[in-house]
Specification:
Elements: H1 10-16, E1 23-24, E2 42-46, E3 48-49, E4 62-69, E5 72-77, E6 80-88, E7 94-96, E8 103-106, E9 114-120, E10 132-139
Antiparallel strand pairs: 1-6, 2-4, 2-10, 3-10, 4-5, 5-6, 6-7, 7-8, 8-9, 9-10
């Protein structure tokens, strides 16, 4: 079951043939930061940091993401929010970057309630273990 875009009904999503999003987060100075609309469906979680970033583990590091259209989302980490462009990658994963260096990757996996994700502070091939992981939970 795909993750539904909050502004579209599940029925409209099926009729359109859309089964996922594309996530490419592009933050620009011209783009005004948004906030999460708590009256609509969104996902929330806390990052677990790994390796040299383990010291960043903080129980208050709340992240939220809200899908606004098939290609746009609002992503918030602590008190900062970015408008993001969503890109769908191979294997149905979704990805974006907030600064063109870091890299967020989501793997919906068919569960509409849980959204696992990985994060790299500075993503450069070849691939390596993520710097942080999270499982976002859906909030209504």
């Amino acid at each position: 079951m795909p993750i539904c875009i909050p502004t579209m009904s599940a029925r409209a999503l099926r009729r359109s043939g859309s089964t996922g999003f594309a996530l490419l987060l592009l933050a620009s100075a011209a783009a005004s930061a948004q906030s999460i609309d708590m009256r609509r469906e969104y996902y929330e979680g806390r990052w677990t940091w790994h390796g040299v970033y383990r010291a960043m583990n903080d129980p208050n590091n709340v992240s939220r993401i809200q899908f606004n259209t098939p290609t746009r989302a609002t992503y918030c980490y602590q008190r900062h929010c970015w408008n993001v462009n969503v890109r769908r990658d191979a294997g149905a994963s979704l990805s974006f970057s907030t600064d063109r260096k870091n890299y967020f990757e989501f793997n919906p996996g068919g569960d509409p309630v849980r959204l696992p994700a990985r994060f790299w502070v500075n993503f450069q091939p070849p691939a390596r273990s993520p710097d942080a992981t999270i499982v976002f939970g859906r909030r209504n």
